[in-house]
Amino acid sequence: MYTPDEDGDTPLILALQKRRFITSKYLINRGADITIADRKGKTSLHYAAEQDNKELMQMLLSKGADIESNSVNGTPLQCAAASGNVESVRLLLGHGANPNLVSSISPSPLVSAIISQSYECFELLLKAGADPNIISSGLRPLTCAIPIGEAGFLKSLLAAGANPNLFSDNDNNSLKPIEQAISVGNLDFARILFPLTERIPSYPDWSIHGIRELRKNAYFRFVDQEGKNAVKIKDYATAVKWFSEAIYIKPDDAKVISNRSLCWAKLNEGAFALVDAEACVELRPDWAKARYREGVAWMLLKVKPNT
Question: Which stretches of the chain drop beneath a pLDDT of 50?
Answer without folding.
Answer: 307
